[in-house]
Every structure is written in C-alpha cells, then in structure tokens.
Design goal:
Helices cover about 40% and strands about 15% of the residues. The chain is an alpha/beta fold. The strands form two sheets. The chain has a four-stranded mixed sheet, with no helix packed on it.
Length: about 210
C-alpha cells in the first residue's frame, strides 16, 4: 500500500529523474529556458526552492517525476545539474508490474507518443533529455498562456487539449506556422465544441 510522505525536500540529479510521459512541448520548454536566463544568479536558488518537482519513489529506489517535466527539461537544457524534489508516495516495495498499474490507475503516467497513440510503459524515455517534442503539446501550453483555457487540476489536462487540437489543427501548421496554429486553437477554445475539455472558459448559454 502506498504511504503518503511528508513534504521533505531532497536534491537529486535531473539526469536521474525517470519520466512518466513520452513527450513535451519544446516551445514551452524554450519559454521556460528564457525565463531562467532572466534570473539573476542570486534569484536562481530561490526559484528552485519554489519549484519542487513531485516524484514517486519506485522500484530500485528510482525517482519517477509525475509533474513539471517541462521545467526539468528546460533546466537540463540550461546546464542545471540538480533540482529539488518532493516525494508524494513511496512505492518502492511494489514489483514492477504493480508499480506501473498503480501509477496508471492514479493518473500518474501518460504513455502517449507525439501522434497521441498510447504506447507500452517500456517505450517511456529513461531521462528527461529523451522526451520527444509534440507540437500539439506546445500549442496547448501556449493556448493556456494566452487565456484559451484555465489551469485545471485534472491530471495531464494540457495533453487532453493537445489531443483535441491534434484533430483540428493540421500538423503542417502546428509544426511550421505556430501563430496560425494558435489562432485556430483559440478559435476552437472559444467554441462550444471545446466545452468537454478541462478548464474550458468559452461562452455559456443563458436562459
């Protein structure tokens, strides 16, 4: 049985973090890199202290990151070696199959590739440096940043938006004309067709 842990913080090497998803939006990663570069050296430690990465401890005492993959990738790209983690569950006593079943049932993994297709857990990257770029995840991140939808507590909510956009914005546009892709994304986000998605804040009908 999982044991909830108190929020004791530890510093670990970013290279040792195991992802629980397959993709990130590199557009969002680049934006986080730019934010990091604007910080004065004295502010960087403070920033890291305010942005702990939640992890689950798994078999072989590995740290599986369950959120903030974009931040971890951005810091890795910027040459940051270590990051603060907060362990939210200790599943080290579970065998491999039970561990992954638990993560899947809790919504703590998202093994979908850059085409939105579910893959086996064996296809998950071993490090954040190996996360693939999904242009639709970039589009979803920028859409939220532009006010297209509200931040939501649903697990992987931005991936749900990315998957919806995958069906509405041609891939060529998503990859090569980001501004046009965002325009189409905003048009969709404001429509009733997007009302099933988490954080939707489009127009509501009045009686």
């Amino acid at each position: 049985m999982a044991q909830a842990l108190s929020p004791i913080l530890h510093s670990v090497a970013i290279a040792d973090l195991r992802p629980t998803q397959m993709t990130v939006g590199m557009h969002e990663v680049r934006r986080k890199q730019k934010e990091w570069r604007t910080l004065a050296d004295g502010k960087r430690a403070e920033f890291l202290g305010r942005h702990m990465v939640p992890i689950v401890r798994g078999p072989k005492d590995r740290a599986y990151i369950i959120d903030h993959h974009h931040l971890a990738r951005a810091l890795h790209e910027e040459g940051v070696k270590d990051i603060l983690i907060s362990a939210v569950a200790d599943l080290r006593k579970l065998d491999k199959d039970a561990f992954w079943t638990f993560l899947d049932n809790r919504g703590w993994m998202h093994p979908f590739d850059d085409n939105g297709k579910r893959q086996t857990r064996n296809e998950l990257p071993k490090t954040v440096a190996d996360l693939d770029d999904d242009p639709y995840r970039s589009l979803a991140g920028e859409l939220r940043f532009a006010g297209g939808f509200a931040k939501d507590t649903a697990p992987f909510s931005e991936f749900l938006w990315a998957d919806a956009l995958r069906r509405r914005v041609p891939r060529k546009i998503a990859e090569n004309d980001f501004d046009e892709g965002l325009r189409l994304a905003l048009e969709f986000a404001k429509s009733a067709d997007a009302s099933f998605l988490p954080g939707w804040c489009g127009p509501h009908a009045h009686d």
